[in-house]
Write a structure and sequence with these properties.
The structure is a homodimer of 393-residue chains. Chain A is of the alpha/beta class. Chain A has 16 helices and 8 strands. In chain A, helix 11 packs across helix 16 and helix 15 crosses helix 16. Strand 1 of chain A pairs antiparallel with strand 1 of chain B.
Chain lengths: 393, 393
């Protein structure tokens, strides 16, 4: 069992009409002039953005707007946000949207106070131990960025998707109203659930399989997400089911499902190269890669995969055949991904066969030119990464 | 499903030798002159107190000492602490001990900044929205005060045990080293586990039985505590099992096991009168009362007690007899309490039969002279309280 730090200081305000508390929360956390950051049209179309701007104005809070965040959020918009904040004297950033918007906001929040180039943080050339305070109104449960300590940004120059983070970028508050997710299309809903399940599975697949309580909590979360997603796909306005998923997405990535374990994160790293190169939906990319990762690594700790098969996927435990049980658990997860409309191969997600050159390029980038490994469950070198991409082809 | 706020901002530093980070943590949260608050002799005998004082001194942090906290911590010591902090210009309180020490520290932290009499807060005559910052080194996992927003104090004048709390009294940091709990005697260990299980059961027994994720997490925690306690009773130095219990105690009362439900808390309120009057161990008092509370209220939501019986206690679900399944779950919990050395009647815990007059007095106090109800699963009036005390006799 590993020592750990658990620090999830975000104030979560969860429920119907919770966005109405936005002005009070911004003030509580010291905001006077706020950058309101958002994505494409949905925040506008739904009327949420106008409602929020009205509430902030009523609360005597000045606002500056920056929209246009796209999935796999871009460095160029981050740079624009940094400039705006500095010029306008912004002292708080409010995100209205999903993980991409919050990730972009985190990058801006670091960049405003960091003296060097913000991209340096993402490529290991710098560290930053402060940032502007932030809050968010979550509309897409998926990335868990609303409680996490991480941010992922894509540099269009080279299609590099890289992550950075520490405790300072945790949101001061996260407003979560499940009703705001009723209009989320099935594909985004399913990709979101995949992402949140993977956040917990990256922590769950650990060689430290002696933190019982954490494992039990992780399994509880995985089972709930697995069951509830079918309910929202059937009835997108099922408040109760949407609420389980929204809250699950936050808990899946606030560290409570990983206390005392050593997380893996190889699937995430492999996926970052995929969505960096092909700009695919992150959750879908994870579904396309995980089964191949699992089949490549399961022999390094069969009993953990057996536990997953039995406790999460409901596979009968064949005590005479642990490997068979483990493999049936992986196959069941693959079937689950397919059943909710997720791809389970690179071809399915990219829309054409992925070439050897592309695979080699992704493995090269993911291993930082052969100098870095990924994962802890099984430590992956460049050739392992290429082998997994090929299995997933 | 209820709307909720989840806010558990305490930085938990968990693991072997974690107390060595104390000076850095006090500084991180702005402490310069610290009241070190502790209980009886165990913090001294174990050498922990001296170690901590040495580390703080090395870190250039001034200290003032106040020991002597007893279980069911007293108002008189709180008043003494307030006076010391004001006189000495203390700007941070560090607790070294268990829930009683932390609860006492919270009362002091409020009292130092509150202009009126601190007891007013506990009897509903005042509110306080700030307090001195605090941190703790936990040595007794039980009360969950290390992450909770509450404090319970006993006023010796009338033996009144009352609670108060809001987000401001949450600890800035909580240092948890499971090794520091190896010397905890079996009775304290078992009473601690009872207390933490009850913190989750108070949340779990709710009429809002539609927050699946929260229920699954609560059940995961209850099952883990129930199993791990036997391991530590058998081998008090089992680090892994001690760690499950220590972390479980914090999660049991940081609200994650109650998000979206409406908690009950009647058993706690009934127990407060018991330990106020007889000065018994809080966890043991809860064990003595819960089975009677459960049998008195279960008909108000049989299906919730069936779920508890099956998912937590492992009772086979007899679908033809839900009430029987529910009652077998309650009986199994009662057996569990007995198996870990807890009392399951008032006579067992007080050491003699409790008189009618004493029961009527407790019901009178618990209902604030017949003016207040307790509980939400079933709303209890004064006569219900007396009936439950009698069943538990």
């Amino acid at each position: 069992m590993k020592d750990f730090v658990y620090f999830a200081p975000t104030e979560v305000v969860f429920g119907r009409k919770s966005e109405e508390k936005v002005a009070a929360l911004v003030k509580k956390y010291g905001g006077h002039k706020v950058l309101v950051h958002y994505g494409g049209g949905s925040a506008k179309r739904s009327g949420l953005l106008d409602k929020v701007l009205g509430l902030l104005k009523e609360g005597g809070i000045e606002t500056v707007l920056l929209g246009g965040v796209v999935p796999n959020p871009r460095l160029s918009l981050v740079r624009e946000g940094i400039e705006i904040c500095r010029k306008e004297g912004v002292d708080f950033i409010l995100s209205v949207g999903g993980g991409s918007v919050i990730d972009s906001a985190k990058a801006i929040a670091y960049g405003v106070v960091y003296e060097g180039d913000v991209w340096d943080l993402y490529i290991g050339k710098g560290e930053c131990y402060k940032c502007l305070p932030m809050g968010c109104i979550l509309t897409i449960p998926a990335a868990g960025s609303e409680m996490s300590s991480g941010t992922v940004i894509t540099n269009e120059d080279g299609n590099l998707k890289r992550d950075y983070g520490n405790e300072y970028c945790r949101q001061k508050f996260a407003i979560m109203n499940p009703e705001r997710t009723f209009t989320l299309p099935p594909y985004q809903t399913a990709a979101g659930v995949t992402d949140m399940m993977m956040h917990t599975m990256e922590r769950y697949f650990s060689q430290d399989d002696d933190m019982t309580l954490t494992d039990e909590i992780a399994e509880a979360l995985l089972r709930t997400m697995k069951d509830e997603v079918f309910k929202v796909l059937k009835d997108p306005s099922d408040y109760r089911a949407r609420a389980q998923i929204m809250w699950g997405g936050a808990l899946a990535h606030n560290d409570v499902t990983g206390c005392g374990t050593s997380s893996d994160w190889a699937t995430h790293q492999l996926e970052h190269e995929l969505s960096g190169m092909f700009d695919v939906t992150h959750g879908a990319g994870l579904a396309a890669i995980w089964p191949s990762w699992a089949r490549y690594v399961y022999k390094d700790n069969v009993s953990r995969f057996v536990r997953f098969a039995v406790n999460v996927m409901g596979v009968p435990n064949d005590f005479t055949d642990p490997e068979g049980t483990a493999l049936r658990g992986i196959a069941a997860m693959e079937q689950f991904f397919h059943a909710i409309g997720m791809p389970i191969s690179l071809e399915e997600i990219v829309g054409r066969p992925v070439t050897d050159e592309e695979i080699d390029r992704m493995a090269y980038l993911c291993s930082n030119g052969g100098t870095a490994t990924q994962g802890r469950f099984k430590v992956l070198k460049q050739e392992d990464m290429a082998a997994i991409y090929r299995m997933a082809r």
